[in-house]
Amino acid sequence: MATILQPEQHSHSSSGGTREIVGFALRWAPFDSGDEYILPQFGITPATFYRRLAEILRDGHTRLDHGVREILTGLCRNRLPDAPFSDQVPTR
Question: Is the pTM of this model over 0.90?
Fold first, then answer.
């Protein structure tokens, strides 16, 4: 599995930072599951988790392999079907 290159740590208070959110999403992405662990681990609903993940992917501060970024963006699109997503994602 590809790795996070240089994640910039953002604080989301007790709900987990960038590294934790991206790491969790990467661990569970191949299984298309894991939502039941989001509330106990992060203290937020799955919808909030995926909105934060989408924000992390959009802001471009976390450097990810392009393939990993596409996988995570697809995951957000699947979990948040009503949310608008740009077809362009940062490639930093």
Answer: no
CA nearest neighbour of 60 among 25, 11, 8: 8
Hey, how many other C-beta atoms are within 10 angstroms of the C-beta on 57? 24
User: Torsion over CA of 51, 20, 10 and 29, rounded to 10 degrees?
Assistant: -40
Burial of 4-27, coded b for 16+ CB within 10 Å and e otherwise, reads eeebeebebeebbbbeebbebbbe
Tell me the pLDDT tens digit for each residue of 11-50: 444 457 999 999 999 999 999 889 999 999 999 999 999 9
Question: How many domains, the chain?
Answer: 1
Q: Is residue 49 part of a domain?
A: yes
As a whole number of angstroms, the distance between CA 89 and CA 29 comes to 18
Residue 47's domain comprises: 19-79
